[in-house]
């Protein structure tokens, strides 16, 4: 995974692009809003400084091949409405974790489902991933439904030692991509 340029992805109505400093307000909102973070334990970015620091950190991690973090925007609009990423790559680069968040004003419209499909396709086809994992809260029904729609299955018996309320799902590369 060495990219000269950030791999922008598009769907019929979305653009998944590189995170920019100008996205700081949405980053701050997504990482600080109580509704968005109800099931997530992570550092907030409740100030412009913290949000910009987060963006700089993400872009440094991209340059060192640790993360692919896409800003989700509606096609032909620049405004960030959410994010989706592949990160926490295994040592052999065959497994990655997927993470995502979305402004509540845009939820329940298929946006994250559409984003996840294009990111999974990219991960399996272009990165050569064999498996993608997702860690989600056991009571986050919307996230669980999204994962199941995208063929993730619950990994029985696997736990997150840092948070026992987290359940772990995984999806394998589809046979048609295996080549």
UniProtKB/TrEMBL annotation:
<dbReference type="Pfam" id="PF13302">
    <property type="entry name" value="Acetyltransf_3"/>
</dbReference>
<dbReference type="InterPro" id="IPR016181">
    <property type="entry name" value="Acyl_CoA_acyltransferase"/>
</dbReference>
<dbReference type="InterPro" id="IPR000182">
    <property type="entry name" value="GNAT_dom"/>
</dbReference>
<feature type="domain" description="N-acetyltransferase">
    <location>
        <begin position="1"/>
        <end position="179"/>
    </location>
</feature>
<protein>
    <submittedName>
        <fullName>N-acetyltransferase</fullName>
    </submittedName>
</protein>
<dbReference type="InterPro" id="IPR051531">
    <property type="entry name" value="N-acetyltransferase"/>
</dbReference>
């Amino acid at each position: 995974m060495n990219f000269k340029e950030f791999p922008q992805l598009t769907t019929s109505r979305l653009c998944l692009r590189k995170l920019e400093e100008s996205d700081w307000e949405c980053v701050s909102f997504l990482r600080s809003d109580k509704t968005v973070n109800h099931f997530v334990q992570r550092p907030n970015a409740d100030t412009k400084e913290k949000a910009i620091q987060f963006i700089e950190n993400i872009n440094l991690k991209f340059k060192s091949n640790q993360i692919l973090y896409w800003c989700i925007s509606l096609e032909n609009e620049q405004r960030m409405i959410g994010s989706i990423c592949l990160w926490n790559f295994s040592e052999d680069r065959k497994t990655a974790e997927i993470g995502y968040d979305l402004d509540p004003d845009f939820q329940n419209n298929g946006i994250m489902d559409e984003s996840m499909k294009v990111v999974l396709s990219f991960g399996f086809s272009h990165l050569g991933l064999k498996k993608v994992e997702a860690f989600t809260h056991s009571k986050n029904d919307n996230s669980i439904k999204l994962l199941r729609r995208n063929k993730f299955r619950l990994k029985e018996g696997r736990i997150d030692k840092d948070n026992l309320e987290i359940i772990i799902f995984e999806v394998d590369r589809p046979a048609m991509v295996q080549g």
